[in-house]
């Protein structure tokens, strides 16, 4: 079982971010090395996250990460209730897409009540609704060689205003509970929770659930994304690329 702080030791090698089992020295794998190991060695990644009853939803659901991108571009979209917003899907796909909220809502939907676990130590239960990511990827048609799905977002951090980004592999991309949520608790997403669209990848920690998604890109390698570790916090703060829970 992988915990948020756990290690995996197989054949004498420590294979996720942590300390070497034999020497005590840090051993960090690249996202791609971790991906290869996970694909070969870990069973059960297709298992479902626990789902809850409506009455078990949390009375308060904190916002994680950015509360409002507050850029001129985002504010203009929000002022028009995201009528002009489009989700761009590109990279290693056969059919690039540009999808409106209305089009996303017209696709087959999945609703799920799940627990959000933040790396900061808090959890909350909420209901999410949207199309499965698999549906979008099948519409676009992944090309041979696509191994990761990267999410480019409207919120930005730091003095350099680096846009938030995250990535998952195809195991999580095609998981039945991985959705692009436009609704939370039976209402359109609020700005604090990532309007108009956020990723829900239910068996990973909260920083993997990218908010304010603007563009999805299928890629063969993460080497050209940020600093190459697979996500914003992975690159700048050493978070694990696979934030499994």
TrEMBL record:
Which SUPFAM superfamilies does the protein's record reference?
A: Oxidoreductase molybdopterin-binding domain (SSF56524)
Q: Which InterPro entries match?
A: OxRdtase_Mopterin-bd_dom, OxRdtase_Mopterin-bd_sf
| Transmembrane parts of this sequence | none
**Gene3D superfamilies attached to this UniProt entry:** Oxidoreductase, molybdopterin-binding domain
All copies of domain Oxidoreductase molybdopterin-binding, residue ranges: 82-219
For this protein, the record's PANTHER family field holds: BLL0505 PROTEIN, PROTEIN-METHIONINE-SULFOXIDE REDUCTASE
Write down what this protein is called. DMSO/TMAO reductase YedYZ molybdopterin-dependent catalytic subunit
